[in-house]
Design brief:
Layout: H1 10-59, H2 64-92, H3 96-99
Length: 107
């Protein structure tokens, strides 16, 4: 009896071929999904480009937008300081809300 005569290969080929076909279909489906995901990512990156350009403009120390932002922040800081000074004055002189800053000089 030969070595090949004792192994039944015929019964194993069909299931292996079916498994290979299912695997290939799964790979094909996954490749299609990956292609769609890659297309979506490309669209996203293309759409994000203007936002990234704007962000680069804001972060560039010499940009007009950065100077305007710094100026606005400085003005907000000065306004906050003025409000603190005013609130402190009102804490010390609550009558100023009714009488005014110089007190009552009316007759």
């Amino acid at each position: 009896m030969s070595f090949y005569g004792s192994i039944n290969v015929n019964g194993q080929v069909a299931p292996l071929a079916a498994n290979a076909n299912r695997t290939l279909k799964s790979v094909d489906t996954a490749a299609g999904r990956t292609g769609h995901a890659a297309d979506a990512f490309a669209d996203l990156s293309t759409g994000a480009q203007p936002a990234m350009t704007n962000l680069a403009g804001l972060t560039d120390p010499n940009s007009k937008e950065r100077r305007e932002l710094n100026s606005m922040l400085k003005e907000l800081s000065e306004a906050a300081r003025s409000i603190r000074v005013f609130a402190g004055y009102l804490e010390r002189h609550p009558e100023a809300l009714i009488q005014g800053k110089g007190g009552s000089k009316r007759r």
